[in-house]
Amino acid sequence: MTPYAIRFTKEAVKDVDKLPPRLKEKLKAVLQNQVAPSPRCGKRLVGDLAGFFSLRLSYNDRLVYSVDDDSRTIFVHRARTHYGD
């Protein structure tokens, strides 16, 4: 089965631009090797973020994404800390 396509929201693009080079490489590897082949590998979020998934990039930084099975697309919504830094 072919992996899902990956798209970034405008907010996620801004987040990625602020990441250090090491985390950008890790993000790329996580998306290609974990998320694209198996979109529901992340932690399923609840509450206001129900329907979204999360994966840890570093101690502080998280990848938050959603999955559209009809178009086989993963939408990355955030790629930064959720601690307000």
Overview of the structural elements:
- There is one protein chain.
- Helices cover 28% and strands 27% of the residues.
- With 85 residues, it is an alpha+beta fold.
- The longest helix is centred in the N-terminal third of the chain and has 15 residues.
- The radius of gyration is 12 Å and the shape is globular.
Key words describing this protein structure:
2 helices; five-stranded mixed beta sheet; 5 strands; YaeB-like fold; 85 residues; 28% helix; alpha+beta; single chain
In short:
Helices cover 28% and strands 27% of the residues. It is α+β, with helices and mostly antiparallel strands and 85 residues long.
Strand order of the largest sheet: 1-5-4-3-2
Number of domains: 1
Structural class: alpha+beta
Number of helices: 2
- Rg result: 12 Å
Q: Separation of termini?
A: 39 Å
- Please identify, by name, the CATH architecture: 2-Layer Sandwich
List the helices and strands and how they pair.
Layout: E1 5-8, H1 10-18, H2 21-35, E2 43-44, E3 53-56, E4 62-68, E5 73-78
Parallel strand pairs: 1-5
Antiparallel strand pairs: 2-3, 3-4, 4-5
